[in-house]
Design goal:
With 484 residues, the protein is an all-beta fold. It has 2 helices and 43 strands. A hairpin with a 5-residue loop joins strand 26 and strand 27. The N and C termini lie far apart (53 Å). The structure holds copper (II) ion (CU).
Length: 484
C-alpha cells in the first residue's frame, strides 16, 4: 500500500528517487563511513530493539544490498554502544567509540564511561584500555585541525550532565578541558549531542539549542568565550550542517532556517528560506553537488502520534539559490534514531528510526532506503539514469595545500568537491563538511587540483572526491585522505 508514496519518474531529475526498502540486520541508529568506503552501523539487537552490546554490522556497498553484502558481528567488548559517539581517528584510521548506554539494576539509559576502538582492517572492536573521566550518553565527537578528537556533552546519569569537554590526542592520550566548562554549551542546557565544528579561525564553534553560540579554544586546559549570537531556539533533534567552509545551515523551531557565516570575527546570521515544516529527528546530508538533502522526521519530537505527523517527503536546499525544493517520497518513516550518510556513488543511505522502548508508536526499522539524488538522472522526464563521468585515477593521500593530479575519462568537468565522510546519529553528522576544490585542466582528461589549505578549513581524515560534469552528474567518488 505504498502507491501514494511514489515519486513520478517524470520528476526524478527534479526530486530524485528512493530505491526499494532494504532489509538491514540491525536498526542503523549509528552509521559511519569507513576508510575503505564500507559502512559500520549499530544501535540495536537483531530484532531492532534498543541495545548494541551484542551486535554491529559492516555493510560493503560494492557487494550490493543483499544479505551477502553484510557482515554482522558479535560485540566482543561488552559495551552497549547505543547512543554513543563515533568518529574516525585520522592518526591510525580506527573508529573511536565514546561512551554509550549502561543498564543498572535492570534500568536502561544510565551512562557508560567506556572507550572502544573499531578497526576496519580486522572488523573487530577492542577496548581503549581506559575509560572517560565522566560517563557519557549522547556525546558529540569532533575532529580538530590537529587530528585530536574533542568530546563534548553527554549525560552522566539522569539529571547529571558532563559540562567539561575531554580531548583525545593519539600521541599523548586523554586530558580534560576544565577551562572550557559550560552548562550552556555542553552541560545541563545543551548536553544532548552538542553542535560543534572546527572553525576556519582555528577555534571551535559551538551552537547551543537555546540560540547562544561559543568560541572554544581546545589547547591546554581549554577556554570558552560567548559570541554575539542570538538565534531562535533550536532543538537537539533539528539538524545543522557546515555546507561550505565556515558556513552553517541551521534548521530551528517551526522549520525556520538560518545561514550562519563564522568566517568573520563575530558570526553573521541571515534568515534563510523556510524549510516548509517542522521536522524533528530529520537528517540533513551534503550531497555530491553541494546541495543538502533533508529527509525523514516529523512534526512532533520522538515520533509522537507518528501516524499523523510523519514527513515522508524529503526536501532539497540549494546553497546557490538559497531555496528549498521538494524531494522524493520515502516509504518508511525515519524518526527518532534514524540516520543518513552519503555514499561514494553519490546516493544517500537513509535508515533506522525507532529502537527505543520509551517512544510512543515506536517502530523497529530493520531497514534502509537509498536515495538517488536528481543529479543521477537525465535532465528530462524519462526517469532514466544519466551517463556518469568516471574518475579513473586519484591519489589516496594528499597534504594540505598540495597540488595533485587526477585523471577523468572526459575533459567535461564543471566542479570538484571534497566532502568529508559522514558519521551520523540522532540528527547529527559529526564529521560531514564540504570544501570546494580549485583545479585547472591539463588536457586529455587530466586535471591539477589544489588540496584545501589547512586543517582549520578541512580537518584531517577521509574525503569523498566528487567530480561533476557540465550536466551536473558526479563521477563515483574516490576516498582521499587529507593531512599534514
Ligand atoms: Cu538515542
Amino acid at each position: 500500500m505504498d502507491w501514494f508514496r511514489e515519486t513520478s519518474p517524470a520528476q526524478y531529475h527534479l526530486r530524485g528517487q528512493f530505491g526499494p526498502v532494504l532489509d538491514w540486520p540491525i536498526n542503523p541508529i549509528h552509521v559511519i563511513t569507513l576508510p575503505d568506503a564500507r559502512i559500520l552501523s549499530y544501535g540495536t539487537d537483531l530484532r531492532g530493539r534498543q541495545g548494541a552490546q551484542f551486535h554491529y554490522d559492516v555493510w560493503d556497498p560494492k557487494q550490493g544490498t543483499g544479505w551477502a553484502s553484510h557482515l554482522t558481528l558479535p560485540n566482543t567488548v561488552g559495551t552497549d554502544i547505543f547512543c554513543s559517539g563515533q568518529v574516525i581517528v585520522p592518526a591510525d584510521d580506527s573508529v573511536l567509540l565514546v561512551g554509550g548506554d549502561r543498564t543498572v539494576d535492570g534500568v536502561r539509559n544510565e551512562s557508560s564511561p567506556d572507550l572502544n576502538f573499531f578497526d576496519y582492517k580486522t572488523n573487530g572492536l577492542r577496548s581503549a584500555g581506559r575509560t572517560l573521566e565522566r560517563p557519557r550518553w549522547y556525546p558529540t565527537v569532533t575532529t580538530l585541525a590537529t587530528g585530536e578528537i574533542l568530546v563534548t556533552g553527554g549525560r552522566m546519569a539522569p539529571d547529571h550532565y558532563a559540562p567539561i569537554p575531554e580531548l583525545y590526542n593519539p600521541k599523548t592520550g586523554w586530558r580534560t578541558l576544565p577551562g572550557a566548562e559550560s552548562d550552556q554549551a555542553f552541560g545541563e542546557r545543551n548536553w544532548d549531542y552538542p553542535r560543534v565544528w572546527q572553525a576556519p579561525n582555528g577555534k571551535l564553534f559551538a551552537l547551543s539549542v537555546d540560540g547562544s553560540a561559543y568560541s572554544v579554544d581546545a589547547s591546554g586546559e581549554g577556554s570558552i568565550e560567548k559570541l554575539n549570537v542570538d538565534l531562535p531556539r533550536g532543538h537537539p533533534y533539528l539538524p545543522s550542517v557546515m555546507y561550505m567552509p565556515g558556513k552553517i545551515m541551521a534548521v530551528r523551531w517551526l522549520g525556520e532556517t538560518f545561514d550562519i557565516d563564522i568566517n568573520g570575527k563575530q558570526p553573521d546570521i541571515k534568515t534563510a528560506a523556510w524549510s516548509g515544516l517542522v521536522r524533528f529527528n530529520s537528517s540533513l546530508t551534503i550531497m555530491a553537488d553541494g546541495k543538502l538533502l533533508l529527509n525523514g522526521g516529523g512534526l512532533l519530537n520522538n515520533g509522537r502520534f507518528w501516524y499523523l505527523t510523519t514527513n515522508y517527503e524529503s526536501k532539497i536546499w540549494d546553497p546557490a539559490t538559497e531555496k528549498w525544493s521538494v524531494g522524493a517520497i520515502a516509504k518508511r518513516m525515519r524518526m527518532y534514531h534514524s540516520s543518513a550518510v552519503l555514499l561514494t556513488d553519490g546516493t544517500v543511505l537513509t535508515g533506522g528510526g525507532g529502537g527505543d522502548s520509551t517512544i510512543p508508536g515506536r517502530n523497529e526499522n530493520l531497514n534502509a532506503e537509498i536515495y538517488y539524488p536528481p543529479y543521477l538522472f537525465k535532465n528530462d522526464e524519462s526517469g532514466e539514469f544519466a551517463t556518469r563521468p568516471v574518475l579513473q585515477a586519484a591519489p589516496t593521500y594528499v597534504a594540505w595545500g598540495q597540488s595533485f593530479e587526477i585523471r577523468m575519462d572526459t575533459s567535461d568537468v564543471s566542479k570538484m568537491n571534497f566532502i568529508k565522510t559522514g558519521s551520523a546519529t540522532h540528527t547529527n553528522n559529526f564529521d560531514q563538511r564540504l570544501v570546494p576544490l580549485v583545479y585547472k585542466a591539463l588536457g586529455g582528461g587530466r586535471f591539477e587540483v589544489v588540496a584545501p589549505a589547512s586543517g582549520n578549513v578541512a580537518p584531517p581524515g577521509y574525503y569523498h572526491l566528487f567530480v561533476l560534469n557540465q550536466a551536473g552528474v558526479p563521477a563515483v567518488s574516490r576516498l582521499v585522505k587529507l593531512g599534514s
